[in-house]
Amino acid sequence: MFESLSLLSLQQYWWLIVSLLGALLVFLMFVQGGQTLIFTLGKSEEERTLLVNLLGRKWELTFTTLVTFGGAFFASFPLFYSTSFGGAYWVWMAILIAFVIQAVSYEYRKKPGNFLGQKTFEIFLMFNGLLGTLLLGTAVATFFTGSAFSVNKMNLLDLTSGNMPVISEWKGPAHGLEAALSPVNLSLGLAVFFLSRVLAILYFMNRLDHAAIMERLKKQLLYNAIPFLVFFLAFAGWLLLSSGFAVDPKTGIVSMEPYKYLHNLIALPVVAILFVLGVAGVLLGIIRSVACFEKCHTKGIWLSGTGTVLTVWALLLLAGFNHTAFYPSNWDLQSSLTIENSSSSHYTLTAMSYVSLLVPFVLAYIWYVWRAIDKKKISTEELQSESHIY
Amino acid sequence: MTHIDFSLVDWSRAQFALTACYHWLFVPLTLGLSFIIAFMETIYVKTGNEEWKRLTKFWMTIFGINFAIGIATGLILEFEFGTNWSNYSWFVGDIFGAPLAIEGIMAFFLESTFIAVMFFGWNKVGKKFHLLATWLVAIGSNLSALWILVANGWMQLPVGMKFNPDTARNEMVDFWKILFSPIAVNKFLHTVSSGYVLAALFVIGISSWYLLKKRDVVYAKRSIVVAASFGLLASIFIMFTGDGSARAVAHHQPMKFAAMENLYMGQQNAPLVAFGILKQDPNATDHKKMNFSYLVEIPDVLSYMAFLNPNAYVPGIYDLVHGNADHGVPSYNERITKGEIAINALAAYKRAKLAGNDSLANAMLGTFEKNYNNFGYGYYANREVHELIPNITMSFYSFRIMVFLGLHFFALILVVLILTVKNRIENKKVILYTALWTIPLAYIASMLGWIVAEVGRQPWVIQDILPTIAAVSQLKASSVQLTFWVFAVFFTALLIAEIGIIVKQIGKGFTA
């Protein structure tokens, strides 16, 4: 079935999948957002434990999506993996450390014998929530703003110059951390940070049965939705007005094109629809949860969550489709990575495409399992009846 | 090739080894304990006996504590392929990335979804569905081991691929050949069965402690019966898979095999070193030659083990370095020359293609393909040939201690099982103490297995094709040094926390 597709079709198919995984990851980072709100929303030990346990039932899903996103990116676009991870070393290391400390924090937080103390693990969760969202958002922004690197495959064959035979070389002084200094990158990073908090609030509204926290959630929704909108609109405005990294389909030469991402949006009407629907979904989820709280507050997460997936998916498609370099180099334009020059071979993409047929099945069992587990809202009383508490 | 930053290569290796070792401290217990829990819960569902449920939940709590830290270290390992081995990620990403992605899609989601049912589903889903979830977690954990070990097996025996000169990388041409390569199959079976033995010894050791303290005696004995039955089967199986692994190494990684045995001069009817103490050869200048100060040999066994023929010739370190024309073994210098020819031919091919000179390009491509098997050796032109020899002392002792400990595990599990079935285990204090103190030995054996596998194949990231010096990312050595220490501190702190929590949990007992 997939064998008959052209290499370009397979590359596009895999860009669709990797982008979708990235979009799902951003949605699922409501766990991270929630972690930054534990102390804001939970005023007592009991309340904090309730919130931690609500998040603790989903953290592995986010974590697994991150791992799969990384694996799928490696398998389908290995030159990106090689260039970005080996180059933007400090950003990725900071992100990794933020996730390492998350992985143990839920399980160890309240267990006796934990020599670091409960507070340490709660701070770990805060740290993961803040850095994980901010840095991932910033890293994704470089898909549009570019990074300073060069790629030269001939380096591998150079036995005489005395240089190391490494094909990609990072030119940024801080190995990726410099990206966090760009206001445009930072605005997307902060947008993702506040969005993850908004989504966490909507998730809590959906799952929680606790009057006092619910009151705080209402207030916090506005406090976080407003900065999210400011930073998101700033980034979206810049994106639609800025020049982008265009690829000549015949020669493969990369050049700057004014309004490139706006042009992509016009040239890809389906993506434009996804984007508009996505943004509308996010906003509607927030507005309804505020405006008709009594009736609508449990549904906000579904609207805003779906909206988030569609928006991020559309953004990543804009970065890679319509002859655009998805990981551009602003140091050497011709080193920029496109879905064509950075992908795996036809054979590998075909084999992987067969594996991708499992994805709907995976989504189905996740859905089934969580429906079974999340039948009842969680209250302090309900939590006490549990045998496994974080 | 004079400016390779060896400090960077070494620190990158150290960081990867640190992460892999910490990861492997937690994973084997997950692999085996998940099945032990599944067996216990199956008995609970079959009998309806609440004591079996309590037993299941106790070991499940230990499983959860251990699982979390395994995930944390696993994430780092996956991304370090990119952060520290960026050339590798490109050079073989077309092949290596796929198992990693399949691992995520097939195994990790299975684990992470059904583990939630395992822990939170007791009162929310039916007994049978809960049991299914527990089994799926066990299967998911072991499936994830399959894919990463297939990837590792492929690095030791690169099959099912072809070098594409235009993209300057290796590309997959046969998925099934990669999945079913002899090294991959043996590696998977040997590694997971070692995890089963470790988990069995862990459960037996902890249960022995309860018996020594005369606490929760019934629970402890039941735990021993399940774990020892499982462990006994696994420790028999591990002998066969170990034998298969050694044979695969002898065929495909002869230098690793020679280092494991400290076989310096190749020979027919090669004996197996049952016991030996190494000492540095006073005259060894270039070949890291080690002599034996004490040696017990079993005649012909090494030849038989390697090639199922007691008369077979097994090449030694000297033969592999200097070559042995009688047995068709090329010298490393020949291989280095051919590797250099391959690299230069590929460069010339690319230049000719760019210039539109197709006939020259075709000629260069032919030269390249003829010499490709030695590609990685080319990076050692003008370097010391002994850099291609792994650390013999580590390989030799690690292999021996692992095998001896494996035999000890088999005997201990057998004795414990018999005594428990005969209901005489409670009073056998020596056996109970031995079982308790065998827990750290199980971890040591497990770690030594990886040292044999990974130290023994140095300097190859991909056997004969890509050495560490050509696989590393271009970073400052000081940057990697810093992250090494950050990880070392974090992992150690988390390990201490984990041990503290597990010890407390065990102290609480089965009925808390």
Summarize this, please?
The complex is a heterodimer of chains A (390) and B (512). By secondary structure, chain A is mainly alpha-helical.
What does this structure look like?
The complex is a heterodimer of chains A (390) and B (512). Chain A has one domain. Chain A starts with 6 loop residues before the first helix and ends in a 6-residue tail after the last helix. Chain A contains 17 helices and four strands. Helix content of chain A is 67%, strand content 4%. Chain A is mainly alpha-helical and 390 residues long. In chain A, helix 8 crosses helix 9 and helix 12 runs antiparallel to helix 14. The mean pLDDT of chain A is 92. The longest helix of chain A is centred in the middle third of the chain and has 31 residues. Chain A has a two-stranded antiparallel sheet. With 512 residues, chain B is mainly alpha-helical. Chain B has a domain of 214 residues. Chain B is built from 17 helices and eight strands. Chain B has a two-stranded antiparallel sheet with strand order 1-2. Chain B has a two-stranded antiparallel sheet with strand order 3-6. In chain B, helix 1 crosses helix 15, helix 2 runs antiparallel to helix 17 and helix 8 packs antiparallel against helix 14. The radius of gyration of chain B is 25 Å and the shape is globular. The N and C termini of chain B lie far apart (63 Å). The mean pLDDT of chain B is 93. Classes of the chains: A mainly alpha (390), B mainly alpha (512). At the A-B interface, helix 5, helix 6, helix 7, strand 2 and helix 15 of A face helix 2, helix 3, helix 4, strand 2 and helix 12 of B.
